[in-house]
Specification:
Blueprint (H helix, E strand, L loop, with lengths): L3 H6 L19 H6 L6 H13 L10 H7 L7 H5 L6 H14 L5 H13 L18 H4 L9 E4 L2 H5 L5 H12 L4 E2 L10 H5 L3 H17 L4 E4 L2 H15 L6 E4 H10 L11 E6 L12 H9 L3 E4 L17 H4 L1 H16 L5 E4 L2 H13 L5 E4 H6 L3
Parallel strand pairs: 1-2, 1-3, 3-4, 5-6, 5-7, 7-8
This protein binds iron/sulfur cluster (2 copies).
Length: 390
């Protein structure tokens, strides 16, 4: 069977190297929830192989069950890490989603989200002019930053910009940047979605316009270092853009946890407050497994006066997903929340009184899970937590 979209992402021989050992089943958060082979990475690969085996006359029939299962994946890539045959699972899942899209088989939630991102330039289909709505309480400080020339750019991202209940993340970020004396700019209405939701479904060609727009606007302002809170934005700029555009993007991309570590090391960020508290750190999939950033957030937390950091049973490359990735929140909201609840339970087991993460989505997911399941533990982004010590 011809699969032109899938072929753009992985070699068509890739699924065939699966030895069906089943190790990937032991780490997949979706398989843990569903319990059916068809929901496991191995089961999905088996079906992809069946598709590839089909002759011309058998083409055209892709059953709904398969489509449903392909979108039951957080793209956490834990399967990739454990696979002995080193199948490039991240690219494979992107590619098969692209293939389904080219056949008009995406679930409605996915199509709507894709369309909003492409046409409205944010995944919430909000007027993009409202990008600074998060700053409505500090407009006098923030509006002068919009579109100013500066070497450091702060890319707020759709989730933090439009989700009022985490406005504390960008507010804390700018408070820290100000405290450290950093001259920075933000794009405001000129900021377009980084394209992460498109990358999740293999919509790379549609993401080119977003990437080129963002890079052009940042270049116009003289930005040389770009800072993001969102692990998804970070991964898009750092990993996807150079691959997508086939060139070095010419801007250093730094996650805010890394930038905090840099400011502390350079003596630009000092702490006036001390607080005796035990916290645990949740590694976001897109910052950890996808980008290999594990040490800097821990360095930052260990630098805070009075703070004790304890690790969960699963951390760093073995970290469990918060359930918010891969657009699963859109297609399977209850399952997504149950995965987050599992992670919160693991954090409670450490005795920590707060979970600190470095991603806006993880923060939202775990807060919602703790609230819904009535679990007593605080959840904050590293920017919110650090801001309390300055
Ligand atoms: S771990 Fe790799 S080889 Fe083993 S079943 Fe999963 S995909 Fe196949
Ligand atoms: S990426 Fe994560 S959720 Fe998706 S199949 Fe692999 S382990 Fe399961």
């Amino acid at each position: 069977m011809k699969t032109p979209e899938l072929d753009k992402f992985v070699d068509e021989t890739e699924p065939w190297v699966c030895t069906q050992c089943g190790y990937c089943r032991t780490v997949c958060p979706i398989f843990e929830q569903v319990g059916w082979e068809s929901a496991s990475p191995r089961g999905k690969l088996y079906y992809i192989k069946e598709l590839l085996r089909r002759t011309e006359s058998q083409q055209g029939v892709i059953d709904d069950e398969f489509v449903k299962r392909i979108f039951q994946c957080t793209l956490c890539v834990r399967c990739e890490g454990i696979c002995q045959t080193k199948i490039d699972m991240g690219r494979l899942w992107q590619g098969i989603r692209a293939e389904l899209g080219s056949r008009g088989l995406w679930p409605k939630e996915i199509q709507d989200l894709f369309d909003a991102t492409v046409t409205q330039h944010n995944l919430y289909a909000m007027p993009n002019e409202q990008r600074t709505v998060w700053a409505m309480m500090i407009e006098d400080e923030i509006l002068p930053k919009v579109g100013k020339v500066a070497e450091v750019g702060y890319f707020v991202g759709c989730v933090a910009a439009f989700t009022g209940r985490i406005a504390g993340i960008p507010e804390s970020t700018v408070a820290i940047l100000d405290a450290a004396g950093v001259d920075y700019t933000i794009l405001g209405p000129d900021e377009w979605c980084c394209g992460n939701p498109l990358f999740f479904v293999g919509g790379h060609s549609a993401a080119v316009e977003l990437a080129e727009h963002n890079l052009e606007k940042l270049r116009e302002l003289g930005v040389r270092t770009l800072v993001t809170n969102c692990a998804g934005c970070f991964r898009s700029f750092r990993n996807e853009y150079p691959q997508l555009l086939g060139r070095d993007i010419g801007i250093e991309v730094v996650h805010f946890s890394q930038y905090l570590a840099r400011l502390i090391e350079e003596g630009k960020l000092t702490f006036t407050q001390s607080k005796a508290i035990t916290v645990t750190y949740h590694d976001p999939c897109e910052l950890g497994r996808h980008c290999g950033i594990y040490d800097e957030p821990r360095y930052v937390l260990n630098s805070l006066p009075g703070v004790t950091l304890v690790e969960m049973a699963n951390s760093r490359a073995e970290s469990e997903c918060c359930g918010g990735g891969g657009l699963v929140k859109g297609t399977n909201p209850d399952m997504s929340l149950d995965i987050a609840a599992g992670r919160v339970d693991q954090a409670v087991g450490t005795g920590a009184s707060e979970i600190i993460s470095s991603c806006v989505t993880c923060r939202l997911q775990m807060s919602e899970a703790a609230r819904t399941k009535d679990v007593e533990i605080g959840i904050r982004d590293i920017a919110e937590f650090v801001a309390d010590f300055i």
